[in-house]
Design brief:
With about 475 residues, the chain is an alpha+beta fold. It has 10 helices and 8 strands. About 65% of the residues lie in helices and about 15% in strands.
């Protein structure tokens, strides 16, 4: 990779005078760096950015929880709507009596010449062997302000949950894109550290051979050894950091930690700095802003519901029943009956201790609070867009000049090595030049990540799906 980089820098020296050529050259360097982000693991699962985002949408636990909350909101609409629909029920009862129950009753009178005729009493059975009763009932709310407002609130709550889910989805996807680029950067840092370590080891071994034949002093040998071991420690730290980033990378998408992965995304071109959008167009696409609008609508429904508490509630009911009693000889063996009734219930609230007026006032205050929150949100979004434009402009300015710094550092390393070979400089100068090259090389790669990170934040800020 560094050989390709050196050839590109050499080819580029004759093109510095043209601004357009400089940008083109920088893009070539970015492509080379980003191509080196891939992990080359045997039998590994390959993920480009699109495949990784698909895995995140499918397996991210936060999105799965938000999706379940969305399904619960849909269930809430069904429950609220059921209060406006008729409810019907059927009830049946069967009894079998094993013991006869009797009661003394007058069944006749004795003839008598007097004014009072004596009655004849007999025990009459009052129950039946079998009792079967079946009934059906239907209830329907004709008018209920509470049921209507609950249904309207449930629908708005569903829309609010849909907007919240979309906002959460965009936030998670933005984090996923930034984490993908961060993982690529961490892997490139490992590659750069390993390359620097190998170079330092070669230099140490070369100085060691020279020292053995008396062509190098012991100070140079010790300096080379310290430099090699220091860079070996830096490589170990870079590997640890990359492993930590890959843990977060897997967790975000629900990828098993036992699965080897290969990051294959290569950016053919870094995006240009976008122009400042119209704030109104941004607000249309911002799911969090629409959530506040729906919150205001929800408070409006709540205020109307409090006002409608002054209205009566009307409901109707209808019931029909059938009965059949058998097994009583005193009633000629059987007894059948049926019944039907229609009812109308009107409930008029008269006095609630000021609760209804208090609810109306509370809903009005909530509306005013949401209106202030909307104004605050608009200001925050506008400020966020300005800040992101500053971030993008700053990253663009740094990346346009960073390759010149890298080239200068590489020339400094070559000059230091030549001077050391001619006895005009110490080996400490070579080490210092090489360390600076590593730093500017890492800074060059980090600038590309910062630009992508700012651009992904910009996409989130304008509500880009």
């Amino acid at each position: 990779m560094k050989g390709i980089y050196r050839n590109d820098l050499t080819r580029k020296r004759g093109e510095r005078g043209e601004r357009k050529a400089e940008k083109k050259y920088f893009k070539i360097i970015c492509i080379i760096i980003l191509a080196c982000f891939a992990v080359t693991t045997v039998s590994a699962e390959e993920y480009d950015l699109a495949a990784y985002l698909t895995m995140v949408e499918r397996n991210n636990p936060d999105l799965l929880i938000a999706l379940k909350e969305l399904e619960l909101a849909k269930t809430g609409v069904t429950l609220a709507r059921s209060a406006l629909l008729p409810s019907a029920g059927v009830q049946g009862r069967y009894n079998h009596n094993f013991i006869e129950q009797t009661q003394g009753m007058a069944v006749a009178s004795m003839p008598d010449n007097g004014s009072v005729q004596p009655l004849v009493f007999s025990d009459i059975r009052t129950n039946f062997d079998n009792e079967l009763i079946v009934g059906i009932g239907v209830n329907q709310i004709l008018f209920s302000s509470t049921a209507i407002s609950n249904y309207n609130k449930a629908k708005i709550a569903l829309s609010l949950r849909e907007r919240s889910f979309e906002a959460a989805r965009l936030v998670v996807l933005c984090a996923a894109k930034k984490l993908y680029a961060r993982a690529q950067l961490a892997l490139l840092v490992v590659e750069i550290r390993e390359s620097s370590e190998n170079l330092s080891l070669e230099q140490y071994q070369r100085v060691q051979r020279l020292h053995q034949v008396g062509a190098a002093i012991e100070l140079d040998l010790l300096s080379a050894e310290v430099d090699w071991r220091t860079k070996a420690d830096a490589t170990g730290e870079a590997k640890k950091n990359a492993a930590l980033v890959l843990i977060a990378f897997r967790d975000l998408a629900g990828i098993p930690h036992s699965q080897n992965i290969t990051l294959t995304q290569v950016y053919t071109d870094l995006p240009e700095i976008p122009e400042a959008p119209v704030l109104g167009n941004v607000l249309v696409n911002r799911a969090d802003y629409h959530s506040l609008l729906l919150s205001r609508d929800l408070n409006d429904v709540e205020r109307k519901a409090a006002r409608n508490l002054f209205l009566p509630e009307v409901s109707a009911s209808f019931s029909y029943g059938l009965g059949r009693f058998t097994g009583n000889d005193d009633y000629n063996g059987n007894y059948d009956f049926n019944s039907a009734s229609l009812g109308l219930l009107v409930s008029i609230p008269l006095f609630t201790g000021g609760a209804r007026i208090a609810r109306m006032q509370a809903a009005k205050l909530e509306q005013e609070k949401v209106t202030i929150a909307l104004s605050k949100k608009e200001t925050a979004i506008e400020s966020e867009l300005f800040e992101l434009q500053l971030r993008l402009a700053e990253a663009e300015q740094r990346r346009e000049s960073s390759y010149l710094i890298v080239e200068t550092a590489r020339r400094a390393v070559a000059l230091a090595q030549r001077a050391y070979a001619n006895g005009q400089a110490t080996y400490l100068a070579v080490i210092d030049a090489q360390d600076k090259l590593d730093l500017v090389w890492l800074n060059f790669a980090n600038i590309g990540y910062e630009f992508l990170s700012a651009y992904y934040d910009w996409e989130l800020a304008i509500g880009n799906k």
